[in-house]
Structure formats: C-alpha cells, structure tokens
Amino acid sequence: MTHPARLILNKGVRHRILTGHPWVFASEVERIEGVAEDGGTIEIRSSKGEFLGSALYNSRSQIVARRYSTASIALDANFLGQKLDAALAYRMATVTTITGAARRLVWSESDQLPGLIVDQYDDVLVLQTLTAAMARRESMIVDLLVQKTGCRVVLSRNDAPVRQLEGLPLERKVPHGDYQAPTRVRIANIGYDLDLWSGQKTGFYLDQAENYAVVAACAAGRRVLDCFTNQGAFALSARKAGAVSCRAIDQSAEALRHAEITGRAEGLEIEWLQANVFDLLRRYEQNRESFDLIVLDPPSFTKTKGNKTSALRGYHELHLRALRLLTRGGILATFSCSHHVTAEDWAELLQKAASETGVTLRLRQRLGQSSDHPVLVNVPETEYLRGYVLEKVDEKAA
C-alpha cells in the first residue's frame, strides 16, 4: 500500500493552521516526506508528527498546501460531490431572492473547496479553477455540477491572473454545452443581459447583489451620483427605486455601453459618463455641485499589504470630495473590496474625512458581501467586502 506524501511543519514558527486556518506557506515547511506532486494532495503533519489534515499541494505556489479536510480523505469524485451538495444546500437555505437566478454556488475555502469558484446565471454556470489541484479535476467537477444543477451550459473563465501564481495558464473555454451571449438575469429588480464570456469576474459583481437593493431603498426622491459604476447596478437600482436623477461614472467605455443598454431596456433615464472619478469629483467641487446620495464602490486599490498606505490615501481623497458634494441629510454608501484594508482602517478613514470636512456622519447600516459569499471566522481572507451606509447629519435643522 502506498502511503501519501507528508508535509512536516517546522519548529518555532507560528502556524495558523493550528488555529483553524487552511493555508501552509513555503516558509513554514520543514520537509516533505514521500513523493509530492504539484496538483496532487498531501498530508499535513505538525513538527511532532501529529496529523493535521489533507491538503492540496503545489510547490510552485507560496501557499504550498491548502487544507480541504481535517480527515485523511482523497480528493475524488465522492468527496467533491459531497462538498458540492453541501454548498448547494447552504445557498438554498440562506440566499435571499434578491439575486434571483444569479448567485454564487461555490466559493473556494468558504466551501472547503480551495480554488474552486462556481457562479450560476439562470441555466449557465461559470466556473474558475484557481489552484492546480482543482484545475486537474476540472472535467470531473463539470460533470458533477451538470448532474446536480441541470444547467445546460458550463463556461470555464480561467482568465484570473491569480492562476499564474499556481503556474497555471490563463484561458477560457466551454467544457459543457454551447454558449451564446447574452444571458438574461434579474438582480435587485433590474433585468440584465450579460455577456458571461467577457464580463468582470464571472460576468457580474454578484458579491454586491444584496447591497444594490439596500442602497436603492435610500434613493427615492434623491439626486444620485454613482462612482465606479461598472455595469451600472447601483445607479439602475436607485433610479428604479425612485431617484429623481442619477449620474453614473466609470472609465470603462465597454462597461458603460452595457449599462446604457440595460437602462434603455428598463426605461430608466441615467446620465452615463466615461471619466476618471477623481478628476470629475474635483470638477464638481469647483462647480459647487451637490448630490443627495453618493455611492463610492471603487475597485481594490491594493492587492498587497505593502501598498496599503498609498491605497488609504486614495480612499481618503475620495471621501473628502464626496462629503463636500453631499447635501445635509444626504446619504453616502461607501465600499472597500480590499482584504488588506481592515474594518479598523476604514473606521479611522471615515472619522478623519468627517473631521477634516467638518461634518457629522451617522451610521445607518454596515454591509458586507452577499450571503452567497460566506465568511469563515478562522479565515480572515474570506471577508473582503465592507460597506457603510452613512447619513450626513443636518446639524442646522437639528
């Protein structure tokens, strides 16, 4: 009988895997016993030889091992099927109807399937295999997904740059069915015709889906400015909910084209502007313009901890300008999608921006990623999207 390869942790290093985190970095490894294959599996053992679980292995990655089970179990069709069943059951039990037929079915470590992402858009599934082990098992995963969901098409959107850290190529393909864009879905009361072959992430920002409705609930009777609008979801939802006007800004002409098409189909009048948000906010401030609801949903300004300081400077400038443009009693909905910017960082940033602009901000609601993107308390990396709905207190009227 062949024994599985073993990864032995070194001594004198704080190992997060001992407190529930699934990752082992190359710097934590004392030695490998047996033959470990990139894209295969390996046992993790403490420096004393204690069994800590079964993990994906890849010597080409800084994260050499990603635990998928605390038991000694093969990463085979039986195990994958059980985990997919559990992931689907969780979404059925917890995901709201706001997202309609668009939702995340599998989210990597949060579903004990490291490196596997699966999103559903009506009867089309879009998957990403971001670790070598999942990439090797992609055809098996596709077969299981088709059996369990009955979806007619599966797209493989393996064009995320993070794959290169695993030594994997960037590629797109259709492993099941025949895909023809667009795919029609309804999210937060807006109908979208999505091109899942080329849209952001797997075609849409599903992690914000529940937040579109929350922000829209504040929009009736307000003049709205939606910054970094992408495909226009915040703007469209707000206008549909009764905003009296809406201006939406993004640098991507292609994203705005899709947003404009959706707006026309929904009969919603929105001013779409292709521009640099920082430049435009500066001009609005010079022109003494004002808005009653401002949405700040920028892309991540940093993918690494080392760039956090410069990212915070950018976020700080955004908030200063937005607060100066916001009317008394106005609403600011602001989001950060960088894991490296913590809740403490964001609170300090908001306090500083409020102080420097001489305003009082009242917290209406804290927001996070949609419930189909679950957070594991022992894995901080699974919580990356933070949002705040804030009211600029009208102190003159108080």
Q: What's the short story on this structure?
A:
The chain is α/β, with parallel strands linked by helices. It is built from nine helices and 20 strands.
Description of the structure:
This protein is α/β, with parallel strands linked by helices and 398 residues long. Helices cover 27% and strands 30% of the residues. It is built from 9 helices and 20 strands. It has helices at residues 77-94, 132-136, 138-149, 209-216, 233-240, 253-266, 277-286, 308-325, 343-357; strands at 6-9, 23-25, 29-33, 41-45, 51-57, 63-69, 102-107, 116-121, 124-129, 153-158, 171-176, 183-187, 190-194, 223-227, 245-250, 271-274, 291-296, 326-336, 361-368, 386-392. The strands form 4 sheets. Strands 16-15-14-17-18-20-19 form a 7-stranded mixed beta sheet, sandwiched between helices. A 6-stranded mixed beta sheet has the order 2-6-5-4-1-3, with no helix packed on it. A 5-stranded mixed beta sheet has the order 7-8-9-10-11. Strand 5 and strand 6 form a beta hairpin. Helix 7 (277-286) packs parallel to helix 8 and helix 8 crosses helix 9 (343-357). The longest helix is centred in the N-terminal third of the chain and has 18 residues, at 77-94. The radius of gyration is 23 Å and the shape is globular. The termini are far apart. The model has no long low-confidence stretch (mean pLDDT 92).
